[in-house]
């Protein structure tokens, strides 16, 4: 495998199906004391950008792409954002691209070979895929999930605390039937040595072409049209008790149809924003970063799944607001 040119930027593509733990891994990359300077591009599926607000210590080197999937509708934005990022080249040594959970990695990889500027100034370091060990079986037949595993150089079998050792063994065997070359690590909360996922020079174009000989000619990616997002942007203060009752009732009734949910909320006028995330029937919430003086406090929620009634979700959320 050719060594990376000293002046080229190593690029890590971070992928994985909805709710697998990509942002958790990204936070580890950005907060661990490893001495690496990392720039990040975050891609989201939906009209509202949530993920960049979930990243700890988000700063000017975290750029956001939303309202589309990086592998299709906003792929051109990747090249434009990369060009903007190069104006800050002296501030970072590594680039991490976190894709939406519905992204096919192949067209994203192709961008680094088909665009002259990106090809000359970067070298693809690795495709790192996070797999939700508990929920992957429910999405195993999804084309996106299979592509993310097949093209991976490194796979994190995440949430191992939620499944049995026997289930993990079965999952790893299934993954090995799809990719014989990827390094597989078993993780809880994506706790892994950063040197195992960053700057590892694991990407091999010849190996990838053996998986999909025509991947460089793939210009578009067709999503499962039954999976879509519902975004809520609403001012006002949220009543924490009402929100808690609503979310718990919602996952009981619609949990199987909600692949992913995440939100940033102003609850009970607290000093810190409240951050919640969910995958199917599992829901987690905790205080996030403090609201800054003069910062507009707003509530933003994104649901991704099937059979979601946008009007009903928005009406039920508004019912959780404090009456002024």
UniProtKB/TrEMBL annotation:
Keywords: Chaperone, Hydrolase, Nucleotide-binding. It holds the Pfam family CobW_C. Residues 227-321 form the CobW C-terminal domain. It catalyses: GTP + H2O = GDP + phosphate + H(+). CDD domains: CobW-like. SMART domains: CobW_C. It comes from the Bacteria. Belongs to the SIMIBI class G3E GTPase family. ZNG1 subfamily. This is GTP-binding protein. It comes from Floridaenema aerugineum BLCC-F46.
